[in-house]
Structures are given as C-alpha cells and as structure tokens.
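INPUT
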Amino acid sequence: MRPFTLQKPTTIGQAVSGKKESAQFLAGGTNLLDLMKKHISQPDRLLDINSVLSEKIESTAGGIRIGANVRNSAAAANELILSKFPLVSHAILKGASPQIRNMASMAGNLLQRTRCPYFYDTSLPCNKRKAGSGCGALKGETRMAAIVGHNPQCVAVHPSDLCIALSALDARVIINGKDNKETSIPFKDFHKLPGTNPEKDNNLPANAIITAIEIPSNPFNKNCSYLKLRDRESYAFALVSVAAALQLNGNRIVEARLASGGVAHKPWRWYEAEKFLKGKTADLSNFKQAAEIIARETHPLNGNEFKVPMLKGAIEVALQNCLTA
Amino acid sequence: MGFFKRKHELKKVPEGRVEGFYKVTGSGKYAAEYKLENVCYAVLVGSTIAAGEIIDINTDNAKDIEGVLDVLTHRNRPQIPAFADEAKAKRAGFSLPVLHTNKIFFRGQPVALVIAETLEDANYAASLVTVSYKTDQAKVDFDKEHATVPIAATGKERGSMDAWSNAPHIREQAYTIRNQVHNPMEMHATIAVWDGDKKLKLYDKNQGVNNVQQTISRLFDIPPANIEVFSEYVGGGFGSGLKVWSNVPLAIMAAKQVNRPVKLMLTRPQMFTLVGYRPQSWQNVRIGADANGKFLGILHQAKHGTSVFDNYGEGITRISRLVYNFGNLKTESATVPLNLGAPTWMRGPGDCTGAFALESAIDELSYDIKKDPLQLRLDNLAVINDPDTGKPWSTNFLNECMTKGAEMINWKSRNPLPAQTKEGEWMIGYGVANGMWFAGRSKASASIIMQKDGSITVQTAMTDIGTGTGTGMQNIAHLELGISHDKIRIKLGNSNLPAAPSQGGSTGLSTISGAVAAVCDALKMKLAGYASSQDAIFKDAKPESIVLSDSGIAYQQAGNHLISFDKIFSKENLQTIEVEASSGPGEERQKYAFCSGASHFCKVRVHTKTGKVKIDRHVCVVDAGYVVNKLAAANQVSGAAVGGIGMTLSEEQLVDSTHGCFIGGDLAGYHFAVNADAPIIEVDFINKIDPNINPSGAKGVGEVGIIGAAAAIANAIFHATGKRLRDLPITPDKVLLAKS
Amino acid sequence: MEKQKYSRRFFLSTSAMAATLAFIPVGVKAFYNNVKKLVIPLKEKMAIKLSINKAKYNLTVDTRTTLLDLVREQLDLTGTKKGCDHGQCGACTVHVNGQRVLSCLTLAATVQGKEVTTIEGLSQGSELHPMQQAFIECDGFQCGYCTPGQIMSAVGCVNEGHTHSVEEIKEFMSGNLCRCGAYNGIVQSIQKVAK
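OUTPUT
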C-alpha cells in the first residue's frame, strides 16, 4: 500500500468536508483494502467513517431505511427485512463469505468495484483502472464479462448480489452532499454504464457520502427468489444471477420484477420482460417467453455466448422458484 | 508369508494426531513464523512480459522509500557460484531464472527483489520498480502449439496395433485438461539466515529438507553439513514443495546482500507462476474390445505443456499400462514448450491426468457395447500380474474395491440407460472409475532417543505436509515397542535429523515406516545389550524375543525377566540411549510389483436449465495395504476426492494468449472446491496387509484418492444427461452447451 | 504533518508505466524524460491501544499495517495465518467483538476500542476450547495451515446458529478454504460442538 493518513471524522459533516479527491472513505474495507494492496487505489487519506454512519434498520412510512453502516450479515438476518423484503436477505447470503458479510457495510456493497481480472492486474490494460490503456478483456478472456450494456471501452460487470435485489425492488440511495443536505438517487440511476468514462462506476457526486438505503414498501415478500450461478457452490462471483419477484393474484401476475447480475456494468433490470409478464398467468410457458424476450436484449461477446442460454435458464428457474418460495 | 514377518497384530490405535494440539492452537511454527532478531522483508517483482529481455530497470524510486535496504536485480545481485557459467549451471541442475539473466522466459519471472525493514515498506517499494523490455513473440497457447509438436513412443509397445484394427467395438476420443495449480494454503516462504560466509540456516516451506539442503549446497558451494533446513510444519504441498523454487536462492542472496536475516513469502498471485502447476494436456485414446467386452487393444497418446527453460515430463500414459489387461498397447507422448512458469508434479502427477482419459474412454466403450461399466472394468482388471513388467502384484485388491464401492453406492439400483432418471429439473446419474498408483518406497533413516523414564523421541528429517506421517510413525513405534503413545514423541522436518527423502508420491509413510521398524529393532538390541549384564538371558536375544513396555525390557513375554529402564540407565550410568538405523527397499522389488488402488463411485445431479452440477455422493474404496491410522488415512483419501471434485468441475488457470499470461491468478479467480462443493465423502479401505512392501505392510494413499475421481464424476454426468464432457473442468457453461 | 509529508523525490519526474515504453532506448536517463510527477509520501505512524486476547497493547503502527501483519510480524501471534492476504481464503479469520472477520482486510488502527480474539486467545487457560478438541477428535485438518481460521470461523458458525444441517454448515463454512480438503472432519467437528 501507498502510505496514507488515517483519520476518524465524528460527524457526517466532517466526513464530507474531509473527502477531497485523494481521500477515500473506509467502512468495512473489504474491497478498498484489497484494491490498496494491489496499488489500484492509492488514497492519501483514509476517513474511517464507522462511527459516523447509522447502523440502524428502521421501518418508515413508505418502507424501510437501512443505515449505511449496517453490516451485510446484520441486514440478512434482520427480522424486518426477512418478513418484508426477503429478496434482500437471499441476495446478501449468496455474496462473499460469512466473514466478509460481517465486515462489509451496506453502502460499501454498492460501491464495490468490478472483479474483472484485467482491472485487478496492474500490468494489463484496463480503461477502468487507467483511462486510455484499452480494454484487456475484450482482446483477451471474456468468460466473466458483460453481455449487455457494454461498449468497446469496457466489458466489465458489476460484482454485487445485494445490488441486484435492490435494483429489482426500486430502492433509493440516500446521500449527503457537500452542503450536508440529504438527497436521494433512484437505484436505477445510481450505477452507470461504461460510456466514455468507464473509470467511473456510479453517479455518486464526488464529495457525497451514502448515509442510507431506502426500499419502498412492496408486495413482493411472498413470491421472490434470488438465483446465482457460479463456478463453484459458494464464495464465487456470479456467471449470471437473477433476482425475481412476483405479485400474484391467484395465479395471475399483477406485477413482476426481474434483475440480473454478472451481465452488465451495472445491476440490470429486464423491463421488457417485466412488462410482458404483467397480467399473464404465472406458468412455465410465460416464464419461457419472458426468458426469450430477455435473451433478445443481450449482445454476448466472443467467448461468453454461453451466458445467454444460462441466463434464460436462470430466469425460468428463478421465476419458478418464486412460486414455491 | 511375505518378505516382512509381521510382529504385531492389527491393534486399535488412539485417534488424534501427534501434532494435533499444536495445529488447533496455532502454536506450530510454519516457515515464515520463526521469530528472528533483526529480520527484514523481501518482496519479489515479476516481469510483465512473457518473452524478451530487460532493457533497463529503474530501482531509484523504490530505493528512496524509507526503510528500503536494497533492491536486487540481475545487475547487482550477489554471484551464485553455480551460475558462473553455463556448464556449472547445468551441473547444478537448477534451471529456474533467479536474477542471473536479463532474458525473460515467462510473465511473472523474478526481475527484482526489494528488501526493506518492514513488509509494508517492501510491498510499496516493489510497486515503484519500473522495467523496460524488448518484447519477443511468446508462445502460451497450448492448443495452438501442441499441434506443431511431433509425438514419440513412450515405453515398450505390446503386441501390435494392427492386431485389433477390426475389433467389433472401437472408441477413439480426445480429452483435454486445462492448467491446474497446487495452491497449498501456506504460500511458499523462506527465511534465510547466514552465520558468517559458509553457514546457513533456512526456515523453508518444502516437502523435503534434505533436497533443499543438497540443492542449496550445490548452488552456493557450501558443504551440506553447514546448511540447516527447518520445515517442522508445512502448510500443504501437493507436489509444489518437491522442488526448490527461485524464492529459496533469492532469499539467501538477499540475506547475503544486506547481511541480515531475510524473510521472503510469495504472494498468492506469485504462487500461480513461480512454484509449479499441473500443465494443460491433450490426450487421444483409441480402445478396442470384442463383442463380450474383452479389451483387445489401446493406443494412448498424450501431450502436455512445459516451460521453455525446463523440460518436465508427466508420464500421462503410464496408467494405461497398469490397471487393465491390454494384449496390444501403444503409448506415445510429447511435451510442448511454452512461455509460462515451470510446471511440476501435482497430486497424482501423470496418472491423474491419464486416468481421466482412460477411464472416460472405457466408460464410452461400455455404452457402445451396452455392458455395465462396472462389469466391463471387473472383467478386464489385471489384479494378478503387473501387465507391464509381468511381475506378480505383491497385492492388488482393486476388484474388491470395486465390489465394495458398488455396494456402498447401491450401484445395482442404477438405471443402465443414460439420461433416464429425473427429479424435477435435475437429472441423476452414477459413475465409476478406477485409480492406481505405483507404491514406491525409498531408503530413509530414523533415530530414537530414550530417556531414563522410558519415554522416547523418534526422529527423522522427513517432513509431514499434513498426511499424518508423524502420527503413523508414533503408531508404528508403539506397535513395535509396546511403549505407550504418550511416551513417544516425534520430531520431524529438520535437516540435522537422520536423512530421509522428500515426502511425495505417496511414499512417505511406506518409506519411513521401514526406518522406524529398523530403529525400533536397534533400540531393542541396544537395551538387550545393556540388560545382558544384569541377566544373561538377554545375551544373544533377537528383536523378536525382546518385549518392551512402559515398565522396561522383558524376555519373550511381558514381565518375564523384567528389568526396568531406570535400572539399566543407573547401572550403565546413562543420560540417554540413542540409536539410529536405516531401511530401504531390497530384493522384494525384483520379485514383485507394488501398487495402491482405488475405486471411485459418484452420484451427481445436473440441472437441465442451468448446467449446474451437484455431487450428491462420492464413495472411494482404497486398497493400500495395512491402514496404520484409519482416521488420518481416510482424511487423506476424502481430501484427495475433494481435490478431484475441484479438478473436475472448477479448477482452471485461464491463459490469455493475447497478453501472454495466466489470468485471474488468485483464489477468487481460481476455484478449488470450497466446503459446500463436496458432499461428506464416503471412504473405506480393504485394509489387507501387503507383506512385501515394507515392515508395516502399509502403502501410500495420498494419490489414489484423486486418480480416477475426475472420470467417475464425468462418467456420472454422462449417465445423468447423456452428455459426454471431455474437457476439464466441466463448468456449467460446458454442460449447458454440450449436445447429448 | 503536511510539511514532512513528501520525500525529496516529490518533484522528480519519471515515467509511471515502463511496460509501455518498450521502445525507449537503453539508459536510465530516458526514464526521466517523461514529465509525469511521482509523489512518494512518507509512511505515517500512529500510536494505538489495542486489546488482543484480553491483553492490552500500546503500539505505534504504520497506518498501512493490517491486523494480520500486526499479530504475525510484531506480536508473535502467528496462529493467525496468511493464505492470500486478499480476503479470498479465510485463513486469517479472527473475532472482533465476537464476530468472525478477516484480519487481512482489517487495518490494525481501526480495531482500537474493540476486543480482538485470535486462535491463541480461544482456549481458556490450559483447557482447549471444545471446538479445538473436536477438531483433534474428528481429524478436522491435515496440514494445519487453514486450521486456526477454520476453528475461529467454526466457533462463529455455531454462535450464529448456522448448524441445522450438513448443507447449512457447509455453506456457512465456505469462506474458509482448505486445500487438503479436510471438509469431512471440519463439518463433523462443528456438528459435535453444536449438539
């Protein structure tokens, strides 16, 4: 690691005003320290924000508010989340390991950087790590790369599981900016596509800090599922993952939510398929058609074509699992 | 009656390992954990190109970092005598680049070594070393390169290939396996400490202290006696510790340069390029049988990767010469030089790779013939004689392994037709395959030091990399001497102790058990010699007639003419009694062939829509002679099976041929099995003594648990789905895309 | 603090990525033609107070020092193992305030005011912790290198109540890699203690 100063702000205001360009917030540290050891992230100053941010999970008028500093494992085991937003718990428990979930903060999970091996190896080209150096993956190994929303600048995928569930449930990211006023960003606008600046993963303003995640009340607690396909049974990043949620009236779908991980630079919502399922009977034939619609949206790279049939299968299974959940 | 008369019955021995306490409390010291005054830290910088040469290295920035003591490169490193000229280097038999050239042979090759006061300083400084290269075209694409390499005969041809060209059933298929990496949990590490110019202490992670001692002696021109190597606790090896890698001479050079003890622990990514791997391979098997399923002939061809600077041969086709009767047989092989790090022996080397092809091909043939794959194998096993040498097997109960395993997994309940058994969207299948490994044995020495209270320490230079060697030695010493377990201490892994070969190839216990038996006899004779001055009955006594116990020495039966150890020590005015003995293989090797065998049975479920494979059950029945410690032996076998699950389903070191390198070289990118990947592995043993192998009757179990495991799983996947997967690892994408 | 921040090389110009400069002619001087600034900050040290295995430590540490490197390299508590140093293997698992966490991804200076327990602090006096005893009895290890991490994690697994089935234990122990594959004995040890 490059040497740095460690500071411990005691208020959100102090944290935000201390967040200059060469400073970074430290919460769980599970991704940041890894990146610092690899000399990918080289802050001059670390601001330990662990005593600044909320560790509370609260019921609100419109839903639930999860403090930024709540640990992933605490959220996964929280009664309120288990009863009202079980999809969040399912997704968290498919990510990382128990130790990492004990350390990682909810806000930090949103800010995880890609696990693309070209991003992680500082001797290989990567536009996300070093603007203008090229995309190593596109010319090299694409197995883990994106199949939708990518461009020649960057084919990396977003690594989080939690975020896929939050995306499906239309969460909001609550932030405090420079002026120390609370604002929020809809989840779908929080992460971004690579565009011309793949070095940026999200639209969090430079000096802002995430203080909470809010999820609006929803009717999806009975019929939801999270399916993650990976190269081993546990402790591996997704090849593809699916967060599925249905609101049912009898066997008729009132509303559907579908989002995927392992497919794009950001958590990816399948809006067309959701629209298709609305009003349809919850049966395999409609699930298959939804999967077909999704497959048509994808643009696999040379070398990761398998993700399309795998995603189709995952969509079908995740939707079926909603019925038996 | 065998070569070795057994002097003891199969007694139940207590469970739990001699070193268990030290491992569960974290108090056992592994290489990098010894506390040394004034130690400093070294961090390696690897090349970022795969082929070419260094034009320039800038170490100024690194040297400017507070705490940095020096930065070694090919320009300023201390001279290693063995690298003074080409001829010397050749004689030293050390082909790895250790800053002695500006040529680059693979990506990750050491180009600089930063030495600093703290690990933090060294790590940061290492990131500031910059190198400019002249880049040459690198060869890293095995698939592309192997086609250009001619194949040559390996071993003697049997019969002829023409003899079975019209066989009723012939199957010919190619099988491929990607690079796999040992990745023991402890990263390779060395602490080098010079005492003056000619004396050296090394705390090192390896599988053979004497090998390190000899190699370093040759390289640095120091007498072996002046080099002491400590490897008391070794955090796994799987073959990676059988060779002395560049980190050892580099740490020694660094310690010389700064005149302080230097600690060098590789990083996990460096573990992928600097300490070996199982090289990528291509195999072609043509196998023929008559209408009843009698094997008529086989052609087994294999090619695998090696590095451009060090030719390494796996012996992939060996397995086809061993297990079954093939009257006509031809084996051919070739190595394919690549700009990658040097590969090396990895658990079940050669045979593990070969068995995947052989046992898959047999399985394919069984469905062609419409004959139960279990029966097809049973009908063709060579359990009487080694088909290659014609020598009788000393013991070979592979047929019993098959029968027992079939019962355990309830093989007969299986639908003989593939792709027929479904549970919802899961397809269920059963597979079987065999594994075999030559039961080797080498010469080793051991010593015993006895104290006045009758407690003993049995010691040898051999390491225990986790196999339970020390526990096995304690059990054997107990059986031979009758002294209680709690009075037998074991000391291992120090080059000053009686010499022993490296622990590898499942030969550890087989080798050392002979030495322990011999030194136990030596102790008996020494005690009898002392006892004879007090009781003439012990004069001319043979080891068989001497009975030891915690109470002392007796004649022919416990208590008879008993003389307490205390009495012997007092009478002779002794502080300790020390004996040393050696033992090695003898003429039994001329007469017999030796093997360990295993049958693997697997029940899998495969998801039709996602390609996900889950192992429901994995059964492994092993024939490895007498089982000295069932708990440790079963652990070895189940651990090897877990290794087999990883090998089959997920282990793959990706190679990027555009950038000339391994990709994702860390434990998040390289997937060996986690706990949830494996079911509780079901292990059993035939547990019949091999009376000719060594005095204990025990053979090694470390390799056979993985040899054949991959084919059993792949065969089960075929039985479940009707899809034949011939390229390892069988990741879900391959399952999904395969045609049935 | 700011005034001593940078070493003399602060204003020295150099090239950052020599790998891309393969065409540059021989000679160290060529390296300094590039005008990109390389900033080399001095290391920062902090005085901290820690409680590890109920013992109090007053230490001055480099801010970069992880809890793992602190216990292994400075406090001679080498029971906590380094298997990857990047949160990918679980060998460095310790407890912080009773929760199982990875010491390789924890800065030493951030555990002030918290109770750290390593494998050395798990047993009470000379008595082994029941999990340590179970690992011996069930042979839940081979080489022993991942073992302290497995045991610390196993204690966490039991405390969290994730022991209802073999499958649940396996899932909640999958953050601890064992290359020897001693998973049979690890699961059995946990079952034994959870009873």
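end of record. The mean pLDDT of chain A is 97.
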